[in-house]
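Supplementary Text 2. Reproducibility record for the structural model of the 376-residue chain.

All settings were left at their defaults, and a single model was retained for analysis rather than an ensemble. We include the record here because the model underlies the residue-level annotations in Supplementary Table 4.
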Amino acid sequence: MTNYRLTPLRDTSANKGRIIEKTRNNMQTPEQKPKRHWMPAMITACTLIIAVFLAGPSIYQALFNKQNFTIEKVVIPNVPYPVLANAIYIDKTNEFIYSADTGIYSFDVANKQQTLLIKQPNQIFDYAVSEKWLIWPQEEKNELKIHSLNRQTNEIQVYETDYFYGIELKNDTLIFMGLTRINGNSSVATYKVLNLNTGHTEVLREIGDGSNSRPTIDGSLITISERVKMESGVSTNITVQDFEQLNDIGNYIVPYRYVENISLVNNKVYGYMWNDREDEPAILGVVDLESGQFERLKTSVSLHDYATDGEHFAIAVQKGKSNTVQLFETRDGKLERISTLPSIKERLVLPRFTKEGTLVVNGEGPDKAMYLIRFE
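Retained model, structure tokens:
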């Protein structure tokens, strides 16, 4: 056994001091962690979430209503609403033309001035107008004859032709449906082309089983629809013709008995189509003239009416128990809504585009306004 002698330290307090100092020098000073102010951040985040929740409809509307258009409200005083429903807007002269019980009038939008163009004892529902021409049917010797007013010379001309239905105007050419007599006993509805400068008339196309749509013109092309009997039932034949050359461009069969409001835009024919089936809703169909393909444009809304300039679609969609016009575009064969027109607080009806691309709609508010929507 080995004996050890412990020699006590004489100064215990000094020894403690040295131990503490040595230990302190050997220890690494830990990095000071920043204090996490998590409470204010959480409060801010919660506030933002609540704000987004409360303002959700406003943010939704802002994203849903990207406005690349302007809206001009036009009120024509002391004119009945049924008259305004048939009003035609002319971009070049910034005027509305409408037919009332006393005649056909012009309303200058900028100057808010009304002018009587033609005196008439009753309202006319089928007429055409441009900055140069005003065309309307009027009874002459118990027959409806086509009349034209040259708005630049104030000259009126009456054409000896049997008007029946539908007046379409393109520059100095008028296209209408007349009656062609066969063997002096019967007659057949026929589309005719009338040169307003010379009065010369040519036959464009005979109509057999009838049609549900007026023709539509784009450039020198015109579309005419006609019901045809097929093995699968009644369909519609859409014919595209060059009315200047008087030749056919193509014939396209769509599987719908009723095709209304045909529009020819950018080498495509659009139409509001349906059959006599309760389980088959009305659709907006399109025929591509180049490929000849027919397509049903997909949409999540119920259609009641439409108009298009080929890029924008003004569609009357279901809203509660009624319907109103909203704006759409096509994306991958589907109609996508781009605006509910939230700045207009009344029901909108009767959408129609001018040749220059202005959308015209009628409002059903107290002042019976019309709206001019111009896309940028």
